Amino acid sequence: MKMILIILLCSLPLTIGLIGCDDDNKNDADKDGDSGATTDSATDTDSNVGTDSNSENDSNTNVDTDTPSETELANSCPDITDESQPGVAKLLEYSVFSFVEMGVWDNYYYFRKDNKLQRINLDDLTTEEIEETIGHVSELIGDTFFWTEKDETDTYIIKSAPVSDATNVTIVASGTRLPRFIGTHDGYLYLLFKDDFEIARAPLTGGDIVTFLPEVDPLGIIVHDGYIWWQDFTRESLNRTSLSGDTGERESLTGIFYGGALAGEGDTMYWTDYSLGTIEKWDADNGRVQLTGASADLLVVMDGTLYWPNGFGNASINSMKTDGSELKKLFCGFHSVDNLWTTGRYLVASTSEGVFKIDI
User: Would you say the pTM of this structure is higher than 0.85?
Assistant: First the structure.
């Protein structure tokens, strides 16, 4: 079972970046329509949550909210394919191998099409080409593109270039293995390598890669609020380590048997729990809180609202306040949802029906 779960790591697009998967994975190639979405789970939102007896904070709180039923949500859910729907614009049509996604930054959606780096202004929907020398498949982290290139010795070079000048390339590290996760904080690149169980780091200006924290086994991992957070499969727990020092120190927060996507806002971490079919949160004051039943591969949060896709074949995009109230289905009619971003004003959803901008 463990081997199956580790293989699934590259199918979690919100927590694992484009750099880290094999060439035949959908996140490392042109958009091919494959989906990592799972089916809805009929989980009781008031079920008990098991916690790790060794964790430092085992608070076990459930949110009891007056949420509408699935039938009520479905009946009130507008169809994304109805072009008359207000507040929705299609940015790109979907077709096999038609474009490569980079991400969203500063009110722009970045992608590669016809072998050209382009971006769409989310306000006026204009498209412009960008002069660049970046990798064909790059990941946009904040305001910087990152990508890998294989060298003549079959090791990898990690490169970067800022959005403001995509011709200004920096070699961050060379002679290294292929990373399955990268994140940045305070002048450093943090990495998790394939077939390895340690977090490493290197200066963003270029330099040696050194071990930052050994003995980690993440299912989901992100950099947020001065920490790396991850769900550790071996230890069955939510963990974090501060990025303030030269080496990391594990802090175990609460038990998780099989976690999924992670998203953070302020000092609170949100995640999907595949074993329970729920969305959960943790903060130092309240510990672990179960918010709602859901089975989602993607999770984003901004301005006190969570967003995630639910289902496969007839998927929806849902939202909920971070206190567990105001559960809504925003749009339905998707076969699958492959990526999701938010700017605060808009959601950008990459789906089997195309890429949509949704006013929020």
Answer: no
